[in-house]
Amino acid sequence: MNQQDGGNTKNMILAMGLTLAVLVGWSVFFDKPQDSGQEPLQETMHTENAGGKPQLGNTNAPRIGGAPSLPESAGLVPPKTTEQVLATSKRLTLKTPSLEGSIRLQGARLDDLILIKYNEKSDKSGKDITLLSPDKTEQPYFADFGWLASAPSIRVPDATTLWSLKGNKTLTQNSPVMLTWDNGQGLLFERTISVDDNYLFTIKDHVQNASAQDVDIYAYAMITRDEIKDVSSFFILHEGPVGYLEDKLIEHKYDDLNEKQETYNSTGGWAGLTDKYWLTALIPPQDLPFKTTYRHGLNGKAHRYFTDYVSPAVSLKAGGSAEYTTHFYAGAKVLDLLDSYEEKLGIKHFDLAVDFGWFYFLTKPIFHILTATKDYLGNFGLGILLLTVLLKLLFFPLANKSYRSMARMKQLQPKMAKLKELHKDDKMAMNQALMELYKKEKVNPMAGCLPMIVQIPVFFALYKVLFVSIEMRHAPFYGWINDLSAPDPTNLFTLFGLIPWDPPSFLQIGIWPLIMGATMFFQQRLNPAPTDPMQEKMFMLMPLVFTVMLASFPAGLVIYWAWNNTLTIAQQWTIMRMEAKRTGSK
């Protein structure tokens, strides 16, 4: 591009390029796990190395901090329904204002959990969200808590242990349950499981050593999940193994664990698995060291993923006792809840379970502004509109400078065209003449860039909030928008429901994307036109390209973009009128 064209279109190209980078770039393809062809890993006995340290044999269960693993076979049995599996095991009932489900008494396993405040569909006509499911079902996802021994001769409770239920048979937010198990060697294990009104479980283990020997045991906790079918392909969203360990945020893709396991030694922190809106997290005592491992195994031919931690050795003196308490979070990633647990339990950066990304220092404040305005106005969509106004006010001085520069550049279009015609055979002379014109008219063609560059991090942060916040999920707006986190349900190519056919996804263009495209077109008309005819045609196509592109984005983002464009048009038109009046130009 020559200097003349650059002076006219540089700001527009920068704006379009940065916008495209925000909205389209970083989209990656789904990478389906491939069948490795390996045979199912076989159940093995615990082994011990020569130095007396616990060691793992070959098993489909994960290594747990270098300590013995839980034996559990991996068969090729066809998956059963959850109801069939639940009917074949002894269980205690779980019911709170936020959760329903059950706990398997064998292994004291948490493997049946439904989030009753969240439904699959925005109109509540679907099923409530199932978070945890038993093994042998189509999508196993469960958590185990237990003990490991320093010697194979010491019997400790594991995933196969049948615990006895003592007292209360239903776990509620007001009624903990107690489980007991005697190893027959002088060790009595008692486990108290409690849960609050939301999604935090507390597992408190008490071990009494009535034998004549000192014993070392290790507490462990483990999340197990079979391969996930619907993992987001968006680069801006992390789904998979997550945690805050060794004073840093840990994020791994599931496929990465197919090649190697990841191990961390930390004091304080947490580890788990995250979806876009849901989280399971193991939270050890924050003042004690622990060892965390993320790894992969096989359950038949299905890929299976594990997150676990192991405590340091718990020494049980003869006649003595010990206690160990861990917490388990299983539920929606509600930021206020995560913040409250972080403060109450001292959990390091538990709020990072919400994937706020690189611009965390902007994203979290914007989130709080959005939720506060939503609570005040009663509608999350109105909160988005108000936040957009606040951001416009914040950047008002910079935006004014940008629009004044664009207005002056537009006024110079006739003079620039004459210079182009005059020096059409000498581009060096034309560039020199343009520079003299800019200097004479006191116009900087790059003056409009700075406001756009400064606003890019804010746009990233807002986009992130709107995309990952569960508060936006199934949040209605007015009219036909009943879910701000889903695309506009209307469609131009069905005449908005009048034609009964199902067009392909690339033709799914709703009313709000059309509104957004119209605002972008009118905004473009206010900007200086490119002097190059080809560039002008390309820019004329941009509103159409963005309309099609944004049609599949969440409606909340499209509404934000359309409203932001509308405010920009009003501000830019006003400034251009004022500038024209000041300079006496038309």
Q: What does this protein structure show overall?
A:
- The protein has about 575 residues and is α+β, with helices and mostly antiparallel strands.
- The chain has two domains: about 5-25 and about 365-585, no CATH class; about 45-60 and about 75-340, Beta-galactosidase, Chain A, domain 5.
- About 35% of the residues lie in helices and about 25% in strands.
- The protein has 13 helices and 21 strands.
- Helix 7 (about 395-410) packs across helix 13 (about 555-585) and helix 11 (about 510-525) packs antiparallel against helix 12.
- The longest helix is centred in the last third of the chain and has 29 residues, at about 555-585.
- It starts with a helix and ends with a helix.
Task: Provide key terms for this protein.
586 residues, alpha+beta, Beta-galactosidase, Chain A, domain 5, 2 domains, 13 helices
Overview in brief:
By secondary structure, the protein is an alpha+beta fold.
At the first level of CATH, what is the class of the largest domain? Mainly Beta
| Secondary structure: helix percent | 25-40%
Strand content: 25-35%
Which residues sit in consecutive blocks of at least 5 with pLDDT less than 50? 1-16, 18-76
CATH architecture of the largest domain: Distorted Sandwich
Counting DSSP H or I runs of 4 or more residues, the number of helices is 13
Number of domain modules: 2
Query: What is the alpha-carbon Rg in Å?
Result: 30 Å
Shape: elongated
Q: How widely separated are the two ends? A: 29 Å
Largest sheet: 9 strands, antiparallel
Strand order of the largest sheet: 8-10-11-12-21-18-17-14-15
Which structural class best describes the helix and strand composition? Answer: alpha+beta
